[in-house]
Amino acid sequence: MRxxxxxxxSLLVTxxxxxxxxxxxxxxxxxxxxxxxxxxxxxxxxxxxxxxTDGRDAxxxxxAFRFAMEFAGTIACLDDLYVRSEFRxxxxxxxxxxxxxxxxxxxxxxxxxxxxxxxxxxxxxVYRRAGFTEAANRQLLALALAPPAHKE
Length: 152
What we know:
Layout: E1 2-3, H1 9-22, E2 26-27, H2 29-41, E3 46-53, E4 56-68, E5 73-83, H3 92-106, E6 112-114, H4 121-129, E7 150-151
Parallel strand pairs: 5-6
Antiparallel strand pairs: 1-3, 2-7, 3-4, 4-5
């Protein structure tokens, strides 16, 4: 993996559009571009990496940071992890998660979370192999205060 920069914004938007299309969503690419520019310009928001193999860009990974009282410090949410279909089943997602874990530990991040669809067995398998487990007695609830970057 390599850390993404502002120069990677167009590539990242392309990856995100592909990722969302797999889920049946049409991405608002202008809003996605704004989001990537924001996170890439403000390290306190999070970090973005380009997943690479054999000198080729194969996907991307985004983590967002927040403070959590439960852990008495900064935690990271794995917000997006995407590997293009032609690069899947090569261990790239697992390797990216391993690198992310090392980055988080070195940065003093106290926990790493991820949201995954109940019906996304393939992603759940990758995350479980990396050590993610269900949070005991927890359920994710959300209150949207703005529309998502995709169209329903």
